[in-house]
Amino acid sequence: MKLRIMEGHVEKILKRATESKIEICGFLLGVFEGDTAVVKKVVFMKNRLNSPVAFEMEPEEMVKVLEWADENGLDVVGIFHSHLCEPLPSQKDFKGMRNWPVAWFIVDNKGNYGAFMLDENEEIEEVELILV
Q1: How distant, in Å, are the alpha carbons of 2, 59, 67 from that of 127?
Q2: Coil, strand or helix at 80
Q3: Catalytic residues
Q4: pLDDT band for position 99 (50/70/90)?
Q5: Distance separating alpha carbons of residues 63 and 71, to the nearest angstrom
Q6: The pTM is what?
Q7: For residues 96 and 99, what is the distance between their CA atoms, to the nearest angstrom?
Q8: 26, 78 contact by CB (below 8 A)
Q9: 99 with 88: CB under 8 angstroms?
Q10: 46-72 CB burial, b ≥16 within 10 A, e <16
Q11: What is the distance between the alpha carbons of residues 6 and 96, in angstroms, rounded to a whole number?
Q12: What is the C-alpha separation between 9 and 7, in angstroms, rounded?
């Protein structure tokens, strides 16, 4: 699996993460082209936990975004969020990856980032990033 994302999208996510005191979160919407998830739109979501160490999206807001994506021919190709420590999946992320089997794009507040997902053995694997 590969994740193709525009540098401008990455910069927008990193900017928000460095300015925030809580974890930021949202959806990466786009299309699948073979084994590559192509990001077309970044949608920031409210972290209803208002926490620096965890995130949870507002369910009503999620429904609206998912309906909009469907109406516009887009899929959820990734979930993004921030960590105040290094951008590696946490135990909570691991559980979330089971529910959302897409790329998880994780950033920190120092400009570092990576993408991950579960493989068929439920092992976390790094997703190749293609910046365009």
Answers
A1: 6, 27, 27
A2: strand
A3: 23
A4: very high
A5: 12
A6: 0.96
A7: 5
A8: no
A9: no
A10: ebeeeeeebbbbeeeeeeebbeebeee
A11: 24
A12: 5
pLDDT at 13: 98
**Rounded Cα gap, residues 17 and 13, in angstroms:** 6
- The per-residue pLDDT for range 34-68, each reduced to its tens digit, is 999 999 999 999 999 999 999 999 999 999 999 99
Amino acid at 110: K
- In the chain the beta strands, taken as DSSP E runs, fall at 2-5, 25-33, 36-45, 75-83, 103-108, 113-118, 124-126, 128-131
CA 84 to chain centre: 15
| Six-digit token string for 5 | 């994302």
Q: Are 118 and 104 in contact (CB under 8 A)?
A: no
Per DSSP bridges, beta strands 128-131 and 124-126 are unpaired
What domains can you pick out in the chain, each with its CATH number? Answer: 2-131 (3.40.140.10)
State the Rg of the chain over Cα: 14
Residue 2 is encoded by which pair of tokens? Answer: 């590969």
Token pair belonging to 89: 């999946």
Q: Which residue in this structure is represented by tokens 């365009």? A: 132
